[in-house]
Specification:
By secondary structure, this protein is mostly helical. Helix content is 36%, strand content 4%. Its EC number is 6.3.5.-.
């Protein structure tokens, strides 16, 4: 697939990047090259190949998902302009 200057201009606009008019031809060639690589990848036979998430197979250690207060409520509340009974105190906004 070949990308022309108009398509490169549109891609640059959609990506919200400013590309000078004289650089559009080079951008079009680069985008065409990328699409060419993608076409080559689609020709690879991957039947029976398991997807991988890392180049080295390993299991990461996991911890129990438990809700805690972080064991630092005093440290957190000391930064509050107004704290009462272990909570942040804020002005009343609804009558």
């Amino acid at each position: 697939m070949s990308i022309d200057k108009d398509t490169a201009r549109r891609v640059a606009h959609l990506a919200r990047i400013e590309v000078q008019e004289d650089a559009l031809e080079g951008l079009a060639r680069e985008l065409s090259g990328i699409l060419g690589f993608m076409e080559q990848l689609s020709e690879v036979d991957v039947e029976g190949v398991d997807p991988m998430t890392s180049v080295t197979p390993m299991d990461l250690p996991r911890r129990a998902d438990e809700v805690t207060d972080g064991n630092k409520p005093a440290d957190i509340l000391k930064n509050a302009p107004d704290a009462r009974e272990g909570f942040f105190a804020v002005p009343k906004v609804v009558e």
